[in-house]
Amino acid sequence: MTYRLNVDAFFFNAKTDYLPYYKPFTMTLDGEAKSVEILKQIAQANENFAYPQERLAFRINDKVVTGEESIEEIVGFLGTELQIDPVTSYRSNHCLVINDDDFMAHFEKLAPYATAEDKAYYESRYALHYASESTNFNRDYVGDALLVTAHKMIKEGSEHKDAILRVIDDEDALWSCEYENNMFAPEALESTIEELKQMLKAPTSKNLCEKIMHKCMQKRIQMPHFQTLQGRGIAYYQGQQPQRTQEEVDAKINAVGATPVHFSRTHKRYGGSLVTHNHTLAYKKAAALLLDALDSGADVLVCSEKEACNFFREHYAMIQKSAGRDIELEVITLEELDAHTANQEAA
After folding, report:
1. What is the model's pTM?
2. Which of 55, 75, 77, 303 has the most CB within a 10 Å radius?
3. 3-class secondary structure, 221
4. Containing domain of residue 314, as a range?
5. pLDDT tens digit sequence for 278-309
């Protein structure tokens, strides 16, 4: 089967361009063709387009791919309207070609304790490194690949376990990792990261002054509360394991006379697991999620998980401070949405 694709491709040349831009392309590719063929087609149509010939990794609709995925897989998951970007835009030198010096620079921290096999394993996790969600919030983050390699070295019985743990015991390393990865074919590595955290005692991020400031701000700044949901824009934060589908919640929202709002970070993590280790990053992640919902048109956010709702409410002042702007968004649970619907029906 063949597919007609509409592709917007990222263009930038560090030597000549001040800002990046996109150019549109239309192409027809066989479903069995590999995703690298998209890049080849663009390069044939425009000689200014460049992509890596080795260690290929790039983004399609913000998912990191290696060029080996089939067009059928890409279309089945992402559709036929595609945006092509470098694996990390701010490191682009020429279109999809990036300065990847940071990749091996991070490995140097483990190098004194690593074997040739460890190094080869790390190099094989190139795409994983650049797919790290934490890098979107902390550009100094060492990357998921380094943590996974450290875990492998320890589990294989390295005599340097304590030294390896010291390398990753840092706010730019393990304590910036609330694992979620933007690979097209994601790996379930949560347990790997959790094992590393169990090996280390988490640092205490809040000193006495921070705790006092947090309590004072919570008294001064309260999350908005609306008496009615009717006429509101309501978004649904599904999290990692949603209790209900988007369609089911949309039906509830329509039933109370409100408007469903969809937003891009509906499945992203909210920072809750980081707050005792790296509160700055935790609040940044929470702010990014709430602002995404707000800027998409919501003024109420329904949370699938009670823990997420409680986190947003408890830390609202600090999240808003991290955002540097007001976040006029009420946060409620699914149960509270149900209760509101029931009350409205009873009335």
Report:
1. 0.86
2. 303
3. coil
4. 210-346
5. 999 999 999 999 999 999 999 999 999 999 99
